[in-house]
Amino acid sequence: MKKSIAIKVTRIHLLLTVVLLCAGYLLAYSYNYTKELALEQEESSKSVAHWEAEDQLREKLIDAQKENVQLEERLRELQFQVSEKEEEMSQMESKLAEIYSELESYRLLAGLIEAKGPGVIVTLDDQDYADEALDPNDYIVHEQDVRGVVNELFAAGAEGVSINGQRFVQTTAIRCVGPTIIVNGIKSSAPFQIAAVGDPDVLYQALHLPGGYVELLQSWGITVTVEKQDEIILPAYVGEL
After folding, report:
1. Across residues 131-141, what is the average pLDDT?
2. Burial class of 180 by CB neighbour count within 10 A (0 to 12, 13 to 18, 19+)
3. Shortest CA distance to 111 belongs to which of 184, 191, 176?
4. 80 with 194: CB under 8 angstroms?
5. Which among 175, 172, 202 has a CA at the least distance from the CA of 184?
6. What sign does the dihedral 210-215-220-221 (CA atoms) show?
7. Pairwise CA distance, residues 151 & 199, whole Å
8. How, if at all, do strands 223-234 and 115-125 pair?
9. How far apart are CA 142 and CA 183, in angstroms?
10. d(CA 199, CA 195)
11. Where does residue 44 rank: exposed (0-12), middle (13-18), buried (19+ CB within 10 A)?
12. Three-state secondary structure string covering the chain
């Protein structure tokens, strides 16, 4: 009887041992399975986040490219506008240069600025006379003689004229007082030096035309000399116009 009970106890112990071993195996398997599943889910979550981040970066890149295209287009528009403004400025500067040059020409002809350049110097001098019975007015230079030379020079293209250092302008009056001549209120006597800026050859030839003014003055007994000069400086007119 005791032997039969011992055998039963032993079987029960073996059965419990087997059950416990199976339970342990199941627990270990369940733990490992749960752990691997968690890792897979974690990897899957990381993969989704990675793709989402890539999508966001791709969208940002596309937006940046669109913005870059718009900026390039705006830059081309601004460059075109700048080019147009530069062209306008260039035309305005060219026009202003023309106006300034034209204004300088008028100021030069008006005698308001100094004139410098090649030209001629015409000298008119009284004729010597010894016969007291003759009228001395027939041997001296008069205002009309000086004015005639000045008119001839301007007609030949002179840019400016001075008479004994006095700049001739539109309002200049030449008056004869005895053997002297008054120009711009300044009195001077012979010889009268008339300086003109312009083409020396043209001015010289204009004065020496056959039957021209030099020949006419010489026929009246006035001493006339004409010299070409490489540079003549005419002072600016001083006074009210």
Report:
1. 68
2. middle
3. 184
4. no
5. 172
6. negative
7. 16
8. antiparallel
9. 12
10. 12
11. exposed
12. CHHHHHHHHHHHHHHHHHHHHHHHHHHHHHHHHHHHHHHHHHHHHHHHHHHHHHHHHHHHHHHHHHHHHHHHHHHHHHHHHHHHHHHHHHHHHHHHHHHHHHHHHHHHHHCCCCEEEEEEEEEEECCCCCCCCCCHHHHCCCHHHHHHHHHHHHHCCCCEEEECCEECCCCCCEEEECCEEEECCEEEECCEEEEEECCHHHHHHHHCCCCCHHHHHHHCCCEEEEEEEEEEEECCCCCCC
Question: How far is the C-alpha of 222 from the C-alpha of 212, rounded, in Å?
Answer: 14
Residue 153's identity, in one-letter code, is: L
Nearest 5°: phi and psi at 195? Answer: -100, 140
Beta-bridged to residue 223, according to DSSP, are 125
Question: Is-contact 162 234, C-beta < 8 A?
Answer: yes
Identify the sign of the CA torsion 158, 163, 166, 170. Answer: negative
pLDDT tens digits, residue range 147-156? 999 999 999 9
| β-sheet bridge partners, residue 183 | 174, 186
pLDDT at residue 132 in the model: 61
pLDDT on residue 126: 85
Note the Cα 113 to chain centre separation in Å: 25
Share of the chain above pLDDT 90, in %: 51
- pLDDT tens track for 187-216: 998 899 999 999 999 999 999 998 888 998
